[in-house]
Amino acid sequence: MLVEREKIILVGVILPNKTEEAFWNSMNELHSLAKTANGEVADELIQKLERVNQASFIGSGKLEELAALVEMHEADVVIFNSELSATQVRNISAAVEARIIDRTQLILDIFAMRAKSKEGKLQVAYAQYKYLLPRLSGQGASLSKLGGGIGSRGPGESKLEMDKRHIREKMHDIKAQLTHVEQHRKRIIERRNTQSVFRFGLIGYTNAGKSTIFNRLTNETTLQEDKLFATLDPTTRKIRFSGGFQALLTDTVGFIQDLPTTLIAAFRSTLEETANVDVLIHVVDASNPDYLQHETTVVSLLEELEMNHLPTLVIYNKMDQAPASFVPDQPEHLLISALDSVAPEMIKQRMIELIEKNWMFFTMELSEEKGKELAQIKQQAWVTKLEYIESKQSYYIEGYKPRKESSND
Ligand SMILES: Nc1nc2c(ncn2[C@@H]2O[C@H](COP(=O)(O)OP(=O)(O)OP(=O)(O)O)[C@@H](O)[C@H]2O)c(=O)[nH]1
Ligand SMILES: [Mg+2]
């Protein structure tokens, strides 16, 4: 579907509680987010304030300037780099002839656009209603302005105008459907957990290169794009190592700073596939000037999601574009460029080391008639030595296998 690109004006306020550098980085990110939502940024309006204006977020003089800017560019949408209250949206809308949305709405919108699975769609719809609910009162005028385009995907116009009771009913309904889908997914995960397979989970800030790495390692083509949140639904595939050994790798949704709280639940469920992996692979875009902030965001979200106990390998990616001055700040790391031909082997080498570290060393002998069993062992355990013993007509095997015996062994 081709949507005409909407013209956007970005608005940001520099406050004393953040450094100017952090502010500009977040403005750049807002720019990428707007582009990801198919928008075309026509201009930016910045104001330095001691605190935000309760009534209109920016000062009244600045508000007039914004109205003039919108008129000059014939802009369709104004996106604020913070969360706005219902009152602020109402007051700004009264003065400016464009749709007024905030960063949270923009992110929700991108999520709505990107969600493919039934569960993903339900999660995003739920988050959108949750965001909307406290903002409904007295917003009639500005809500009726919504009618498609950035910031209004998902629950359509008529639904947006439902009263609170209807929205609550709708949320209740979505919750029930979600419970159903979640149970189904949990059963799949449980089944997978009873198989003794080593599992890796890719996580990291949006656009770090997770899907590129995933594709290179699994020879798959999940959507990889220079857009934020290209991947929304988790995908799990096999990685094959030499000798026939297989492990599983899961690609996940990217993280972002100041993630709308309404979306944390959605995140939690999409990340559940990675909640019980053996090792997390945290991908960091080393070429991004804000990579340290990205790392911090990911680490604190992992804490919030109670996943910070998992062993983690940090991959600093896009080293081809990283500045010469780049210094990794995590001890357990790998420096690569996912586009480099040697990258998959470098990562696999490290993965093997991690498997050896987290699994249990074993030795065994297997009589030569048990060819089928041998093939199975080679697939499920990481075999490091395999010798035929002539005198015993059997194989001597050394390798690594799960610490816990699986139930179907
Ligand atoms: N120069 C360079 N670009 C890369 C490298 N790895 C990935 N990219 C590019 O970075 C962009 C983002 O890559 P993705 O793999 O989609 O990133 P992601 O982490 O999956 O992003 P989300 O799914 O949005 O969270 C794409 O345009 C890739 O081609 C690299 O090593 N060097
Ligand atoms: Mg991706």
From TrEMBL:
<comment type="function">
    <text>GTPase that associates with the 50S ribosomal subunit and may have a role during protein synthesis or ribosome biogenesis.</text>
</comment>
<keyword id="KW-0963">Cytoplasm</keyword>
<dbReference type="InterPro" id="IPR042108">
    <property type="entry name" value="GTPase_HflX_N_sf"/>
</dbReference>
<dbReference type="Pfam" id="PF01926">
    <property type="entry name" value="MMR_HSR1"/>
</dbReference>
<keyword id="KW-0547">Nucleotide-binding</keyword>
<protein>
    <recommendedName>
        <fullName>GTPase HflX</fullName>
    </recommendedName>
</protein>
<keyword id="KW-0342">GTP-binding</keyword>
<comment type="subunit">
    <text>Monomer. Associates with the 50S ribosomal subunit.</text>
</comment>
<dbReference type="InterPro" id="IPR027417">
    <property type="entry name" value="P-loop_NTPase"/>
</dbReference>
<keyword id="KW-0479">Metal-binding</keyword>
<dbReference type="InterPro" id="IPR016496">
    <property type="entry name" value="GTPase_HflX"/>
</dbReference>
<feature type="domain" description="Hflx-type G">
    <location>
        <begin position="198"/>
        <end position="328"/>
    </location>
</feature>
<keyword id="KW-0460">Magnesium</keyword>
<comment type="similarity">
    <text>Belongs to the TRAFAC class OBG-HflX-like GTPase superfamily. HflX GTPase family.</text>
</comment>
<dbReference type="InterPro" id="IPR006073">
    <property type="entry name" value="GTP-bd"/>
</dbReference>
<dbReference type="Pfam" id="PF16360">
    <property type="entry name" value="GTP-bdg_M"/>
</dbReference>
<dbReference type="InterPro" id="IPR030394">
    <property type="entry name" value="G_HFLX_dom"/>
</dbReference>
<dbReference type="InterPro" id="IPR025121">
    <property type="entry name" value="GTPase_HflX_N"/>
</dbReference>
<dbReference type="Pfam" id="PF13167">
    <property type="entry name" value="GTP-bdg_N"/>
</dbReference>
<dbReference type="InterPro" id="IPR032305">
    <property type="entry name" value="GTP-bd_M"/>
</dbReference>
